[in-house]
Amino acid sequence: MKPVPSGRLRPTADGTDLILTRTFRAPIDDVWASVTESERTARWFGPWEGDAAPGRTIRVRMAFEEGEAWTEARIDACEPPRHLAVSTSDEAGDWRMELRLSESAGTTELQFVHHLTTTKGVGDIGPGWEYYLDMLVASRDGTPAPSFDDYYPSQQAYFESLADQDPE
Prior knowledge:
Belongs to the AHA1 family. This is SRPBCC family protein. InterPro entries: ASHA1/2-like_C (IPR013538), START-like_dom_sf (IPR023393). The chain is an alpha+beta fold. The chain has one domain (8-162): START domain (Alpha-D-Glucose-1,6-Bisphosphate, Chain A, domain 4), CATH 3.30.530. It is 26% helix and 36% strand. The protein contains 4 helices and 8 strands, in the order E-E-H-H-E-E-E-E-E-E-H-H. It has helices at 28-36, 38-41, 122-141, 156-165; strands at 8-11, 16-24, 48-49, 57-61, 70-79, 83-90, 93-104, 107-116. An 8-stranded antiparallel sheet has the order 1-2-8-7-6-5-4-3. Strand 7 (93-104) and strand 8 (107-116) form a beta hairpin. The longest helix has 20 residues, at 122-141. The N and C termini lie far apart (34 Å).
């Protein structure tokens, strides 16, 4: 099965937001735990360690990347169970990301936002986030983890086409 890309771009005052959404038939507190508790993030992204709080930096191990590298992430905002903002700065660049959660009638929507200063490289970035969010879905559903090979490079053209439409 080939996953269908769902990401979209939205122009902002500072650049462009890459937005991806997933919905879960689960209470918001349970989805929040999946994206903030180390033993649960380990199932779909990687574990983290440190004293997590707004303004502090934690270490995150990217368990599904080659070499399982550790990276530092600064917690810019944490408002349980609705909003988490983090930023990273490493050889991949300076990245600012947010998770926004909302619940309605027993369904929780998770919106992932990557704040981009440029759409250059979105053909590489977008498939990666689609993969990780589907890893989150699989970890919650207890289904087999998807293969990154189903996302990249097959979704690259989709995300590059979004950037071509962006009037940046």
